[in-house]
Write a structure and sequence with these properties.
It contains no helices and 16 strands. It is mostly beta strands.
Length: 141
């Protein structure tokens, strides 16, 4: 029996990968972009774009200096950059956002701060397409 096998899994059988939880812990600093298939929880600090297929959660005390791109974003800490959420954004009472928010639905708890432009609607949560030409990035809205 393998040490890391799951109960009930057939030996040699294939199993579908399940996206998990990725945590940037308190006291940890990441410089660069993050991309995950599941959920990214940030308790430390990230200097770069954070992308997650399911959810980005910036905990109280967590910091992101860059854009947040996900299906759902829950912010309890600080974000300095745009938030693009396909479904919803939740700004908790301890949140501070300095940047634009693009989403279908928004919840701001009393005490939550947002300094930027709010864009809502069916396709508001999609980040702009970026194309490279001649070494320069061109944004397409």
């Amino acid at each position: 029996m393998a040490v890391f096998s799951e109960k009930g899994a057939a030996p040699g059988g294939s199993r579908e990968a399940v996206p998990g939880l990725s945590i940037i812990g308190a006291g940890m600093r990441v410089i660069g972009d993050i991309s995950a298939d599941g959920v990214v929880k940030i308790e430390g600090s990230v200097n770069g774009t954070v992308r997650a297929a399911k959810q980005v959660l910036v905990a109280r005390g967590g910091e992101v200096e860059g854009d947040v791109v996900s299906r759902e974003a829950i912010i309890g800490g600080d974000v300095r950059g745009a938030i693009y959420a396909e479904e919803r954004v939740e700004l908790q009472a301890t949140s501070v956002v300095h940047g634009d928010v693009h989403t279908k639905r928004l919840l701001i708890q009393e005490g939550g701060e947002m300094n930027g432009v709010l864009r809502m609607g069916e396709d508001a949560g999609q980040p702009p397409q970026v194309a490279q030409r001649g070494g320069q990035a061109l944004a397409r809205a």
